Amino acid sequence: MTNDNCSASDFEKAVREMGAKALHIGMVDPQGEFRDKLVSADKAIKLAKDGYPFCEVLYFWDIAENTYRDGAFVDRPATLFADTVRRYPFAEDTALCLADFAGDFGRRSPRNVCLEQIARAADRGWDVLSAFEFEFFVFDETAETMKAKNYRDLTHFAQGNRTYSLQTSALYGDLLEGLEETMTAMDVKLDAIHTELGPGCFEAPLTYAKGIKAADDAFLFKNFARSYFARNDLTVSFMSKLSPALSGQSGHLHLSLRDRDGKPVFADPDSPDGLSRTARHFIGGVLKLMPELLAMCSSTVNAYKRLVPGAWAPISANWGVQNRTAAVRVINDSKEATRLEFRVPSADTNPYLALAMLIGAGLYGVENEIEPAPSSAENFYAATPSADAAFPRDLWDAAQRLKQSPLARTIFGDDFVESFVESREVEFSHYQKQVSEWEIRRYLGVV
What we know:
By secondary structure, the protein is of the alpha+beta class.
């Protein structure tokens, strides 16, 4: 499968207008990593016309690049997306673009799954507007020093940091400005940058965007933040939970819908909570499917170390208006800005899957007119959830819930569910074989 002539023409136009002599092709992999090939601009334009072959091994190895299937690992056709051409921030006369597998093999792709859900919304006459916000820790370490320390007793950057700290911003303003400039070069717009709770902890809410661009922006932000800090001899972490002594790192997702006239679909000032019937049904679908789809937005072993009582994160499917303890928080400060904040994803979430999950579940609720329970202002962190609303406790349970969900297969396709679940089962199997320091200290010499 190749781009059509219009897309290939658009691709060439975008590259030529940018004056790029070279182009970084970023293959979107299942883990959310930018798999890079640097080619000349002329070759990239040719690839956009004729198709882009890339090795299928991306879907048959784990995050440590250990293969879990034997095979020839053949090249599969992929597409270069004209609407993703952007400036590369670390070199002159250089651009970047995103690519992904096409055809039958591409059905397992998180980005393609997300595109399908955005198209479902478009079929109903709605544009999806969304934005991620990421919390992250920065360490005064390089890849080499972390390895030498066996990833223990690492030195935090900005150790005197406090939440919303002027002092941290005053001391390290140049570094933060450089991060924003790096993102701006790629048309990834930041709504703000501020410090968060903990040494070297920051938060970067991204500016909302329409359609797939919001997920692309999030994908690029995390990948190029890692590169930016590494270029400054620092290391950034988007792990969900680094230590019991530190807060978890969220990757909250804001979403709203607009109709073809640009009017907000979720808002109705004359209804309770200012929410339209569509918004209520959308929330109903998200709440109903959240427990069985959880692996899509919480896809690492570590994510479930954050989704526990007392960690300032949801542990069940619930919702409330302006309630920060809820899994789905309704923000209704104004009609135009009425939106949902999905507070379950961690910073390590795959943005394509988190967005696909939210849209897919919400549209299911709209199509089936699912009414949610009344919104609540209670402290959900302290509440005992009902059995049907409680989240799976770990990645294995979440993967099995997804695997056994007929609705997940209907909404996202068997190819995706089977491929994704297999990869999560492999990930959890590696974890099961490990013996943690906590277990050694707890049991050695006692049992």
